[in-house]
């Protein structure tokens, strides 16, 4: 359906652009957040570009955080009496009496609202639009120990600064290190708290790669071998077995979940990576079906000629059929890799110790421990888990799209 | 049996040997065992005790079970049509033959590449009631009506729509399948329809949709099966299998999981699994029946 | 001979050769984990036969159960009281009575060393299943600076729930322009760790020894109170307010960040304040009185050690448990503290034992530790009901709490619903236990026949 008119084409482009924006925006937001310092992730109104703010505090150029913007004309004062003595206080100008040098404070006494006057020293007049800023600190020090001030926007210099260190810290804390350890401000305890307390990100990655790669090898070879038996040899019982194979595709995972758990328990595999990759070496109904369909399209004469040359059945499979089947092998390999990389339910069921976790499970575990505010680190970790898949996609785009289109597999 | 028949049987079994083991150990035995467990009191720690239809009878009276079923069906009813509309629309847009199709296709497809745990985390952040970018964008719009945007995942009334919204973001796969279906539609059909004076919408309705109806049917079935078993994103985004807030996201698979692995009531969970299977078969048959007159196989 | 000795000494450098390795899973990370590691190290040095390997594991209640079910349990699991009864009923944990008897003691004697409320938690169906490691009592924690800022006496905490509500109102700040909540005096769900005990706090009961009593009239008062906060401050406003809170263990915790002025928390709170909000001025006092006749009410909870069924080295695990139930009455310095007192000292918690060494009592790092000892000694101290279905009960109770708090159901309606569900669960569980008992007897009888 090709639109002819300029108008129709413009509408289509506009829709495509709007759609692309909606689909890409969350990913952009993921990266934006991953590169921001924590306080900017929650800034209102939100900013897109990670920035650094520098201002003069106590006579020194200091990196600061912008806490909030002053809405009404105010004064910055320092009470010379009462409970908040000595601490800078931002008060609306209407409550400030310049002549008396006092501010009005509302207090309760015995449930009664009461206004008292507190003697103060004026520090500066503050206009609307000024920012309350605080010295930025890497470590968790209480805000009252940090210097703060109220400054006009022009007194704060702002520049773009992506925080790439978020990625380093996220990867380190994902394995269970504290932020201080990851930043190097505290050295890790020498005794350690057991092997599970701080597992390196690379351990999660290598676990994931073990599951993915062994699984891919298993899936490609086992399914090819099995499918060959179904597609190119005629034997009694073949069709019955194949029908049974197709029928099992209907069975949803929840039915298998409980008994499989018992099976793996009997095999002593709970708590190891084995339940996640060994089954791949024994074929799967869908992949068998997929490969069988492909093998059926290869001309019969190829095998017959080889057979006359005295080639064994295995030889035909290995030397003739397999080399011709690269496209379908690639599809199976790719999608097995993807599903193993993304799998969450399997690791959740079978893995018990952190040092055996795969990335997907480690990421969820990270979220459940550090959720709430550390959005920059969570987004950085999510980006790292996503990146290899995106890279893989760009290198194998053709196989990918063809694979989905011809099989309908979910990636 | 002749000699070469025998030989074929031997080599056929040889090639299928792995599968015979795999099928028995990882599928057939589990299916039979699950059926047996569903009629037993079973905790894995001790051998199962046969209790007849006890689990099924109790399920009929389990209010939370029905609630989880209702939640799942509501979620399906929200996410399935939404996903179909979005993916078909995108496929139609991409199929207009404009330049840059491959680029746009990549854009639309990228989100479905993101591992589900990672995208759950991202949407958890987007849906955050206070600082989430979605509410930041919505706040000025709904403020016109004097309202405030919902807090999505922390509001029992909005948690399911939020999850459905998120699912629409990951429709890349079905979009690609639709696109492949659309590209198979012969160009002449459109041309003759155009000659008959059919406008854009009429062509979509009378030519395109009927022509890709098998693909729609396929995606519909896959969609039903998928959304009845939705688990990972809910587990990650609502912090476990409790279906927070207020059990509004306690879906079938979550209740099944927590029954099996938190309460170790594996027999009861197996009974739930079999009812799920029946439900899937039932809905598939229903969809097949309803679509029989409308799906056109070429 | 000297050469032989040297060789043996060199061989001795290889400690793995004949020592038994006991795997120990715990929930603690960070400072609490380090404290336990020190206790483990001290135990490992105290003898040369057993090496305890400490692993901190997240979501331990689920992991331990699944690992036990999967045939791969640790030798020791550091769990919570709420897991004892369900683990026991599911046959997932070993009773300790035989170990105690083998040491020439009796279960009664063993338990008598613990403060009664903590001793009672660990016995169930006539057997002992666990020992308390670090216990707690819930207490009111209030932010003195926020009291002062609101013009209130920072040394005067609320004494009754009516006062708590009144103080809460005075401590709350709402943005006059947007109506947004800026700070709240109190919220029943922040963090709501004591929510399981709200009914008992209000004079109600969860279990009367025979049947589930979730819908008893006094319980209704508790949930009406929970509901009143959502109604008073507005559900949407509260949601907006709380979505800005960080995780519990972070400086963005609502209490540390000065967003909530009063919380009901356990003895651990001091640790977290030191770590995430050093310098926070706060006070600790007994729970405000919620119902007449319950003036000395206290809610107790504890971390416990258990030996999962299928553990590979139960005897050696028991040795460690024994160490963790001992203390050194004569300790004069921190270095001389031993067993459970060393752990509770390092974790800055109260000791579960009846007797405390003078050093532990007087030099404890927690400024209010004596208060927690008194709370635990109260005759009105309660703990959660000893029910094999407690985890399901707790989930149901949490759902009642959530539904009420989110104004999805009226308290009466939610309790009626919960009551029905828990009773049903209870019945089903009792039947299942009965069946298993019958089968066991059956198999014994069959075995007896020639």
Structure, described:
- The complex is a heterotrimer of chains A (411), B (298) and C (450).
- Chain A is an alpha+beta fold and 411 residues long.
- Chain A has 16 helices and 10 strands.
- Helix content of chain A is 51%, strand content 16%.
- In chain A, the strands form 2 sheets. Chain A has a 5-stranded antiparallel sheet, with no helix packed on it. A 5-stranded antiparallel sheet of chain A has the order 4-3-7-6-5, with no helix packed on it.
- By secondary structure, chain B is mainly alpha-helical.
- Chain B has 14 helices and 2 strands.
- Chain B is globular.
- Chain B starts with a helix and ends in a 7-residue tail after the last helix.
- The mean pLDDT of chain B is 91.
- Chain C is an alpha/beta fold.
- Helix content of chain C is 46%, strand content 13%.
- In chain C, helix 2 (30-46) packs antiparallel against helix 15 and helix 11 (217-233) crosses helix 18.
- The termini of chain C are far apart.
**Alpha-beta content class of chain A:** alpha+beta
N- to C-terminal separation of chain A?
A: 28 Å
Oligomeric state, counting identical vs distinct chains:
heterotrimer
If you average the pLDDT of chain C, what whole number results?
89
Report how far the terminal alpha carbons of chain C are from each other. Answer: 60 Å
Number of strands of chain A: 10
Provide the helix percentage of chain A.
40-55%
Q: What proportion of the residues of chain C is helical, as a percent range?
A: 40-55%
């Amino acid at each position: 359906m090709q639109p002819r008119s300029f108008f129709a084409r413009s509408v289509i482009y506009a829709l495509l652009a709007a759609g692309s924006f909606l689909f890409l925006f969350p990913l952009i937001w993921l990266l934006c957040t991953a590169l921001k310092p924590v306080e900017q992730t929650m800034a209102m109104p939100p900013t897109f570009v990670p920035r650094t703010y520098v201002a003069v505090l106590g006579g020194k150029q200091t990196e600061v955080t912008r806490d909030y913007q002053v809405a009404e004309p105010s004064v910055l004062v320092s009470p010379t009496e009462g409970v908040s003595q000595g601490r800078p206080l931002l008060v609306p100008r209407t409550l400030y009496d310049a002549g008396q040098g006092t501010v009005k404070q509302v207090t309760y006494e015995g449930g009664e609202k009461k206004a008292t006057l507190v003697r103060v020293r004026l520090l500066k007049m503050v206009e609307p639009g000024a920012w309350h800023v605080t010295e930025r600190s890497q470590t968790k020090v209480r805000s009252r120990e940090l210097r703060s001030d109220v400054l006009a926007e022009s007194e704060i210099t702002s520049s773009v600064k992506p925080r790439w260190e978020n990625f380093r810290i996220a990867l380190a804390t994902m394995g269970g290190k504290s932020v201080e350890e990851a930043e190097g401000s505290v050295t890790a305890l020498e005794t350690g708290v057991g092997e599970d307390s701080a597992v390196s990100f690379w351990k999660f990655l290598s676990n994931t790669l073990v599951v993915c790669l062994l699984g891919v090898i298993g899936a490609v070879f086992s399914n090819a071998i099995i499918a060959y038996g179904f597609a190119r040899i005629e034997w009694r019982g073949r069709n019955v077995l194949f029908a049974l194979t197709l029928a099992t595709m209907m069975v949803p995972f929840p039915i298998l979940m409980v008994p499989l758990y018992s099976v793996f328990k009997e095999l002593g595999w709970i708590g190891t990576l084995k339940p996640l990759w060994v089954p791949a070496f024994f074929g799967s109904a869908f992949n068998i079906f997929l490969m069988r369909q492909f093998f059926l399209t290869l001309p019969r004469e190829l095998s017959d000629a080889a057979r006359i040359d005295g080639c064994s059945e295995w030889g035909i499979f290995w030397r003739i059929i397999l080399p011709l089947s690269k496209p379908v092998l690639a599809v199976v390999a790719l999608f097995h890799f993807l599903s193993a990389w993304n799998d969450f339910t399997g690791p959740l069921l079978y893995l018990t110790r952190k040092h055996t976790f795969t990335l997907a499970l480690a990421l969820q575990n990270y979220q459940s421990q550090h959720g709430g505010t550390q959005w920059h680190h969570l987004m950085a970790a999510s980006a790292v888990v996503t990146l290899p898949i995106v890279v893989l996609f760009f290198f194998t785009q053709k196989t990918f799209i063809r694979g989905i289109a011809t099989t309908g597999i979910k990636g | 049996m002749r000699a070469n028949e025998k030989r074929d049987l031997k080599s056929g079994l040889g090639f299928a040997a792995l599968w015979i083991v795999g099928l028995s150990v990882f599928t057939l035995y589990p299916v039979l065992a699950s059926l047996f467990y569903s009629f037993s009191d079973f905790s894995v720690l001790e051998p199962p005790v046969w209790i007849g239809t006890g689990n099924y009878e109790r399920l009929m009276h389990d209010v939370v079970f029905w609630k989880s079923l209702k939640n799942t069906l509501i979620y399906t009813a929200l996410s399935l049509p939404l996903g179909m509309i979005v993916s078909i629309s995108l496929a139609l847009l991409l199929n207009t033959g404009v330049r840059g199709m491959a680029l746009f296709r990549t854009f639309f497809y990228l989100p479905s590449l993101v591992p589900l745990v990672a995208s759950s985390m991202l949407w958890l952040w987007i849906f955050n009631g206070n600082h989430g970018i979605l509410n930041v964008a919505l706040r000025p719009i709904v403020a016109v009506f004097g309202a405030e945007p919902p807090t999505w995942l922390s509001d029992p009334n909005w948690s399911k729509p939020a999850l459905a919204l998120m699912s629409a973001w990951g429709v890349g796969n079905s979009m690609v399948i639709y696109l492949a279906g659309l590209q198979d539609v012969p160009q002449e059909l459109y041309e003759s329809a155009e000659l008959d004076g059919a406008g854009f919408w009429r062509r979509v309705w009378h030519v395109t949709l009927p022509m890709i109806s098998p693909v729609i049917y396929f995606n519909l079935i896959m969609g039903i099966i998928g959304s009845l078993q939705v688990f990972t994103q809910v587990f990650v985004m609502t912090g476990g299998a409790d279906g927070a807030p207020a059990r509004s996201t306690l879906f079938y698979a979550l209740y099944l999981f927590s029954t099996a692995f938190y309460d170790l009531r594996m027999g009861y969970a197996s009974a739930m699994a079999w009812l799920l299977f029946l439900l899937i078969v039932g809905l598939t048959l229903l969809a097949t029946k309803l679509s029989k007159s409308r799906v056109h196989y070429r | 001979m000297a050469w032989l000795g040297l060789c043996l000494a060199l061989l001795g450098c290889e400690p793995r050769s004949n020592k038994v390795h006991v795997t120990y899973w715990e929930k603690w990370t960070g400072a609490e984990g380090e404290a336990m590691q020190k206790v483990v190290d001290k135990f490992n040095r105290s003898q040369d036969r057993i090496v305890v390997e400490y692993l901190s594991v997240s979501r331990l209640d689920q992991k331990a159960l699944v690992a036990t079910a999967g045939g791969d349990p640790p030798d020791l699991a550091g769990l919570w009281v709420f897991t004892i009864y369900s683990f026991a009923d599911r046959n997932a944990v070993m009773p300790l009575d035989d170990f105690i008897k083998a040491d020439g003691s009796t279960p009664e004697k063993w338990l008598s060393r613990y403060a009664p409320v903590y001793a009672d938690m660990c016995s169930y169906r006539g057997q002992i299943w666990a020992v308390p490691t670090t216990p707690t009592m819930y207490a009111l924690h209030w932010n003195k600076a926020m009291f002062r800022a609101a013009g209130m006496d920072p040394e005067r905490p609320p004494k009754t729930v009516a006062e708590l509500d009144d103080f809460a109102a005075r401590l709350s700040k709402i943005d006059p322009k947007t109506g947004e909540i800026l700070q709240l005096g109190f919220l029943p769900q922040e963090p709501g760790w004591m929510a399981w005990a709200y009914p008992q706090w209000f004079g109600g009961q969860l279990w009367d020894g025979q049947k589930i009593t979730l819908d008893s009239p006094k319980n209704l008062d508790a949930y009406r109170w929970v509901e009143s906060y959502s109604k008073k401050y507005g559900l949407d406003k509260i949601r907006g307010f709380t979505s800005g809170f960080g995780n519990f263990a972070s400086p963005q915790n609502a209490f540390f960040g000065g967003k909530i002025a009063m919380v009901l928390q356990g003895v651990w709170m001091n640790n977290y304040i030191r770590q995430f909000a050093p310098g926070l001025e706060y006070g600790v006092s007994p729970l405000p009185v919620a119902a007449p006749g319950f003036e000395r009410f206290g809610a107790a909870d504890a971390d416990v050690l258990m030996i999962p069924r299928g553990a590979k080295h139960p005897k050696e695990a028991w040795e460690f448990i024994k160490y963790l139930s001992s203390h050194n009455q004569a300790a004069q310095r921190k270095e001389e503290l031993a067993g459970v007192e060393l752990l509770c000292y390092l974790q800055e918690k109260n000791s579960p034992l009846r007797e405390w060494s003078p050093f532990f009592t007087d030099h404890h790092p927690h400024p209010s530790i004596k208060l927690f000892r008194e709370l635990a000694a109260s005759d009105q101290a309660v703990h959660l009901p000893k029910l094999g279905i407690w985890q399901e009960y707790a989930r149901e109770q949490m759902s009642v709490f959530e539904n009420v708090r989110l104004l999805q159901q009226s308290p009466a309606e939610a309790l009626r619903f919960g009551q029905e569900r828990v009773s049903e669960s209870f019945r089903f569980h009792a039947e299942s236990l009965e069946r298993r008992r019958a089968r066991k007897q059956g198999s014994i009888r069959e075995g007896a026949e020639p």
